[in-house]
Write a structure and sequence with these properties.
GO molecular function, one term: unfolded protein binding
CATH class of the largest domain: Mainly Alpha
Structural class: alpha/beta
Subcellular location: Cytoplasm
Number of strands: 11
Strand content: 5-15%
Keywords: ATP-binding, Chaperone, Cytoplasm, Nucleotide-binding, Stress response
Strand order of the largest sheet: 2-1-3-4
GO cellular component, one term: cytoplasm
Distance between the termini: 106 Å
Helix content: 40-55%
Shape: elongated
Protein name: Histidine kinase/HSP90-like ATPase domain-containing protein
CATH superfamily of the largest domain: Heat shock protein 90, C-terminal domain
Number of domains: 4
CATH architecture of the largest domain: Up-down Bundle
Number of helices: 21
């Protein structure tokens, strides 16, 4: 008698006791209301069985003497409505089977290949052993007409024979005729076969030595984790310890900038002078970084300095110090005028030592919020509005004395400080600096209208010419 039939005859059926059945119903409906959990648990149990045999093999190597592969096979059978999981680990005893196993009814969707793949990817992607799914596939196979006729029914053979047109070769020599007779005609048919697909190809790389992991493996792990089929961006991280090893001899502080993205902080006006001096600036683009640097004031004796706050000190020689004093004196009147125009929008207006190519920027006081912190706090639903009003008011406007826009504005202000164009330019510079420094505008429409008005002036069109433009073409 075949072994399979003997096993079927010897199979026994057990039912849960009434109390256990009630308890199982409670557990399933309460903790496992999501039906797909059962597959995760079965795979987890199979993984435990593989762990068990692997651990036992450490003290008893004969357990794995036959060289069997530690793996998990998943075999769906749509016709019989079964889903079979097979592992090569240490199985349960008869008592374990009686005590631990039950069935989940009416879940025939899990015999479908697509559904099984979804559940395994969602819950069991990083099981340490191969999980293999047995799938039914089709492939084309080339067979001779003789083989095809053996598989087809007699009725089909008759129909094919009647439908086939008779072809008579005219003028072919005897040698060619003999070759045609010897050559068998072939046809392609589709046949079904069972293939094995490994579902968890991406292994948990965090359990391995980083030196043994290739860039290709990192890329595959990223794609499986994010469902992104594009290559991940190259990102080079650094630590404060590594930063210290690269500091210049005349550098006294650790410079950093916080922001929403790497591109934003890299193109910021705040880093212009610092980078020109050859100093590194740490880019901090995670929201948690703002809270960390508020508590981390120094590291290994070096002070952490935000390049977006007031009081930025950079090493200067005597010539640079002298030039700064001259610039402060030359732009003193303009700074006072800009403060009068902006009023409570800024605490003060000063000459900047951090700008190179930008005309101006908005910095915050030492204890005020940065633009990034202000953005984070505005997104909080339960924020303290009274605190926000106080912290958001701590803004300083810094102007670049070497920029042609600022120099031209100084000359116009010296000629007539009551000129309306001067006021518009000051407000426009301030609002533009807000945007470029990472802040948001309370009234974007007013800012837009001011820009449009400046564009009209630049084109030589005033209010009177605009009215005329409606009646005649210039």
């Amino acid at each position: 008698m075949p072994e399979e039939m003997r096993q079927e005859e010897e199979a026994e059926t057990f039912a849960f006791q009434a109390e256990i059945a009630q308890l199982m119903s409670l557990i399933i409906n309460t903790f496992y209301s999501n039906k797909e959990i059962f597959l995760r648990e079965l795979i987890s149990n199979a993984s435990d069985a593989l762990d068990k045999i692997r651990y036992e093999s450490l003290t008893d190597p004969t357990k794995l003497d036959n060289g069997k592969e530690l793996k998990i096979d998943i075999i769906p059978n749509v016709e019989e409505r079964t889903l079979t999981l097979i592992d090569t680990g240490i199985g349960m005893t008869k008592a374990d089977l009686i005590n631990n196993l039950g069935t989940i009814e009416d879940q025939t969707e899990y015999v479908e290949e697509k559904r099984v793949k979804e559940v395994v990817k969602k819950h069991s992607q990083f099981i340490g052993y191969p999980i293999t799914l047995f799938v039914e596939k089709e492939r084309e196979k080339e067979i001779s007409d003789d083989e095809a006729e053996e598989k087809e029914e007699k009725a089909e053979e008759k129909a094919e024979a009647e439908d086939k047109p008779k072809i008579e070769d005219v003028g072919s020599d005897d040698e060619e005729d003999s070759k045609d007779k010897d050559k068998k005609k072939t046809k392609k048919i589709k046949e079904k076969y069972i293939d094995q697909e490994e579902l968890n190809k991406t292994k948990p790389i965090w359990t391995r030595n980083p030196d043994d992991i290739t860039m290709e493996e990192y890329g595959e792990f990223y794609k499986s984790l994010t469902n992104d089929w594009e290559d991940h961006l190259a990102v080079k991280l650094t630590s404060l310890t590594e930063y210290l090893t690269r500091m210049k001899d005349n550098q006294k502080s650790i410079y950093y900038i916080t922001g929403e993205s790497k591109d934003q902080v890299a193109n910021s006006a705040f880093v212009e002078r610092v980078r020109k001096r050859g100093f590194e600036v740490l880019y901090m683009t995670e929201p948690i970084d703002e809270y960390c640097v508020q508590q981390l004031k120094e590291f290994d004796g070096k002070t952490l300095v935000s390049v977006t706050k007031e009081g930025l000190e950079l090493p200067e020689d005597e010539e640079e110090k002298k030039k700064m004093e001259e610039d402060k004196t030359r732009f003193e009147n303009l700074c006072k005028l800009m403060k009068e125009i902006l009023d409570k929008k800024v605490e003060k207006v000063t000459v900047s030592n951090r700008l190179v190519s930008s005309p101006c920027c908005i910095v915050t006081s030492t204890y005020g919020w940065t633009a990034n912190m202000e953005r984070i706090m505005k997104a909080q639903a339960l924020r303290d509005n009274s605190t926000m009003g106080y912290m958001m008011a701590k803004k300083h406007l810094e102007i670049n004395p070497d920029h042609p826009i600022v120099e031209t504005l100084r000359q116009k202000a010296d000629l007539d400080k009551n000129d309306k164009a001067v006021k518009d330019l000051v407000i426009l510079l301030f609002e533009t600096a807000l945007l470029s420094s990472g802040f948001s505008l309370d009234d974007p429409q007013t800012h837009s209208n001011r820009i449009y008005r400046m564009i009209k002036l630049g084109l030589g069109k005033d209010a009177h010419s605009e009215l005329l433009g409606g009646r005649k073409r210039l």
